[in-house]
Design a protein that fits this description.
The chain contains three helices and two strands; from the N terminus they run H-H-H-E-E. By secondary structure, the protein is mostly helical. The protein has a two-stranded antiparallel ribbon.
């Protein structure tokens, strides 16, 4: 079992400005003790010859070739527009300005 005491949990709660009941302090003391024990076990297994990892599988970026593709012409883009003004979409004004 870890060395975390109820007094330490109460002190940390006070520093964090968290109001804990005595039952919550007791519960958190046990939970934090289990967390510290679990970290200690991992530390025992992870020796200096074990490399640190952030992901169990190697990750690589998958890139595709950047191929230029022609876009729509003005006529194609405006073909379904309900209203147009030359080469522009015409929309109703949203501000009372012209």
């Amino acid at each position: 079992m870890s060395e975390i005491s109820a007094e330490q949990v109460a002190h940390l709660a006070n520093l964090a400005r968290i109001d804990l009941s005595p039952e919550e302090i007791t519960s958190l003391t046990a939970e934090l003790g289990q967390i510290v024990d679990a970290v200690a076990k991992v530390t025992e297994v992870a020796g200096p010859d074990v490399p640190a990892t952030s992901h169990p599988l190697p990750l690589t970026n998958v890139f595709r070739e950047d191929v230029h593709v022609p876009g729509l012409t003005v006529e194609q883009a405006l073909s379904g527009a309900p209203d147009r003004d030359g080469d522009w979409f015409r929309v109703p004004p949203i501000l009372d300005e012209e």
